[in-house]
Amino acid sequence: MDQTVTTCALLGRFEDSGVAEAAAALLPALAQRGLVTLVQNSADWQRFADQVQAVDDAQLLERAQLGIVIGGDGSLLYAARLVAQAGIPLLGINRGRLGFLTDVMPQDMLDSLDAALQGRCSVDKRPLLDARILSPNRQPPRQLALNDVVLSKWDTGRILDFETSIDGSFLNSHGGDGLVVASATGSTAYALSCGGPIVAPDLDVLVMVPICPHTLSDRPIVVSRHSRIAVTLHERAGTRAQVTCDGVICDELLPGEQLLITPAIEQLTLLHPPGYDYFRLLRAKLHWGRAGLDHQR
What we know:
Elements: E1 7-12, H1 17-32, E2 36-40, E3 53-55, H2 57-63, E4 66-71, H3 73-83, E5 90-94, H4 109-117, E6 122-134, E7 143-145, E8 148-153, E9 160-166, E10 169-176, E11 178-183, H5 190-193, E12 205-211, E13 221-224, E14 229-233, E15 241-245, E16 248-253, E17 258-272, H6 278-286, H7 290-296
Parallel strand pairs: 1-2, 1-4, 2-3, 4-5, 5-17
Antiparallel strand pairs: 6-7, 6-17, 8-11, 8-15, 9-10, 9-14, 11-12, 12-13, 14-17, 15-16
């Protein structure tokens, strides 16, 4: 890191026993290294009251020089949207299930903390998506996403009718359950489960993946990350559509309104432990290569 870190933000769902256990082990280490630890005033921090300062989000973003999130990838996605606004680097400690993004195991967190403080971590810049709804009748706020922006049915039942365009050029008319627009980072999340490709995170692309398309010709497509993707919902009786960013419901998309997805100004700085290898992580999480190893034995 380019500066001496004196203040860090600790993020996570502390009501979760696994997260609380890791936090209890980490907080004394932070104090021993001379760091002031901030937590969100809305978090369940009372059990650590003598070790942390609870502040509002504005103060947290103003004061913190390092972010540490404990939990699963969902916790990191939440933290990413928060700290990216202030350019705070983020270290993820895995207490979830999969851990594509939170790649520091609890037994390694103190070594990884020292690596972060000493500038030995691998610095990984990840772009974010900007999502906004364009409407003649209202002005919903813009939203950020690290993984994906998703248009989906609000309720089960009838399919959605919508059309897409890229940089003002018509792409396709769609019927189905919705659409995932994923960053390279998010290609291993919802988009992958819908049949999209795995994309190396350093590629400057987006993946557009239909959700349960009504026609077999409606296939995933890879486009430039700098594209302006517009999705317009058509009127169809008995259907409602919602927009989610990284799995969080943002708003309803009404017929005639347009969902516009563009590159965000903000970006996330992830810190990985020394020796980080994305493809090794991919093999571990997807259980690749085992047949070859067994054959060699």
